[in-house]
Structures are given as C-alpha cells and as structure tokens.
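HOLO CASE FILE
Compound: L45E5XJ5
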Amino acid sequence: MWRRVTSVSHLTFAHKSTVNKNACTFKCWESFTTEIPRKEKTTYQRAKTPFITFVLGGPGSGKGTQCMKIVENFGFTHLSAGELLRREIASNSADGIMILNTIKEGKIVPSELTIKLIQKEMELSDNYKFLIDGFPRSEDNRKAFEQIFGAEPDVVLFFDCPEDEMVKRVLNRNQGRVDDNIDTIKKRLKVFTALNLPVVNHYLEKGKLYKINGVGTVDEIYKQVHPVFSSFHFEVRV
Ligand SMILES: Nc1ncnc2c1ncn2[C@@H]1O[C@H](COP(=O)(O)OP(=O)(O)OP(=O)(O)O)[C@@H](O)[C@H]1O
Ligand SMILES: Nc1ccn([C@@H]2O[C@H](COP(=O)(O)O)[C@@H](O)[C@H]2O)c(=O)n1
Ligand SMILES: [Mg+2]
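Model generated. Tokens follow.
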C-alpha cells in the first residue's frame, strides 16, 4: 500500500529555495506497510539539487535540435513543454481539446497544467539533469514554476534567431504539427515577443542567461552551447 507524501521539499532544491521557502514542491509515493517492498527512489528524488536548464527561443529557433546534442554529449533528460502538451492531446485526456485549440492559436496553455506535466516527467526520471525546452513561455509560466518548485533554473539558454529564418525553418519542418502553418506562426511570433521576451530579459538581469546566436549550421551553433555545460564539469560522453 502506498500513501501520498504531500511535500518532500526537504529532499529537493535544498540550496535553491530562495523564492518561496514554504513552497510545496515534489510529491512522491512512500510505502507505509511492510507487505510491499519500499519503492526505490529515483535519482531525481534522492538528489537534493536537480540541475535545471530552461531552453528559450522563438518558434523554429533550434531549441529541440540543440537539446538533442546536449543530451548526446552531457546526458541530460530533455523535456519539451510543447511535446508534453502534444502528448496530452494524443492521449485524449480531459484537457486535450483545450490544449489543441490553444496550440492552434499559438497561445499559452495555463501554467499549472504545463508544470504538472513537467513535474510528472521529472518525478519519473532517473536523472537529475534536465533541459526544459520551451518553458517558461511567459512571466506567468515563470512565476508559477518558481512558486510550485520553490526554485530557479541553474542555466537559461536563449537561441536568438531572426524571424525570417525561424519562419523558413518552421515551414520546412514537415513533422505534421498543427501549428506549423503561416497563420499560426505569425501568432506564435507575436506571443513570443509579447510574453517570452520579458522572461528572457528577467534572466538576463539575473545574470543567468546564455545568449546563443541561432544562425548558422547546427554544429556551428552547438559550438557556442557546448562550453556552457563543460564549464559545469559534467562528464562529457565520447
Ligand atoms: N541551425 C539550423 N539550420 C537550419 N535548420 C535548422 C537548424 N536548427 C534546426 N533546424 C531545423 O529547423 C526546424 C526547427 O528546429 P527545432 O524544431 O529544433 O526548433 P524549435 O526551436 O524547437 O521550434 P519550436 O519552438 O517550434 O518547437 C527543424 O526542422 C530543424 O531540423
Ligand atoms: N510552456 C509552453 C510551451 C508550449 N506551449 C504551447 O505549445 C506550442 C508548441 O510549443 P513548442 O515549444 O513545441 O513550439 C506553443 O506554441 C504553445 O501553444 C505552451 O502553451 N506553453
Ligand atoms: Mg521544439
């Protein structure tokens, strides 16, 4: 039998809880009888300090592409907020229709919902290094994350790319996404400027932002990304 433990904030983000010390952070399941063996805690649940990277940039700026290279080289777990939302639509969940309509309009899904999906993936993970791609998309996303997690990211990557290049890439993507059409792209670019750039500026002011020139080949861009992570002395995979 398992019981829900409402707060394990003492297990997580011990040194980073500068935002809200009373934040209810992660929930986990704990055995309270001897009939069933105690569930193994994942690395993440054991880790006192997960390493969180937010990956920001406009639509088509190359966030997902560069995340794949960071995963390959440094063993991060990649959590794309957009991908988690698309998965929620595909699973026919109660929120699926609302999410689909929001994505078609290029708007932002309510923060609590997106954070719930991210949190679930983190809890299930065996890793402690996370790339959270496409999040926070707005000041509301950011504030809700800080409130719920009681923590701030360690690193914020921002892929800076001109609009015409982003539009070209998205229209050539060919992955069947409902929002990869010119009408929705225009809306996404407006939302990016209005809601996401304030988040970028927030982290710039906090000294956490690594601005990457998003123009060039994938490898040229990755050459700017690699030193960000090697400076933290993570094990590099060969
Ligand atoms: N440096 C690059 N040069 C040319 N094409 C690129 C480059 N980086 C990525 N692409 C291509 O551009 C498209 C968009 O890239 P990607 O999916 O990584 O962007 P994204 O920032 O994750 O976009 P979104 O926010 O819409 O998910 C993909 O088809 C990808 O293969
Ligand atoms: N924090 C987020 C992230 C994404 N969305 C919605 O998903 C769409 C696709 O996101 P990508 O990162 O895959 O481009 C995005 O345009 C939003 O509609 C969100 O609401 N909140
Ligand atoms: Mg993406």
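CASE NOTES: Residues 49-230 form a domain with the Rossmann fold fold (CATH 3.40.50.300). Strands lie at 2-5, 28-31, 51-57, 77-80, 129-133, 155-160, 209-213.
CLOSED: yes
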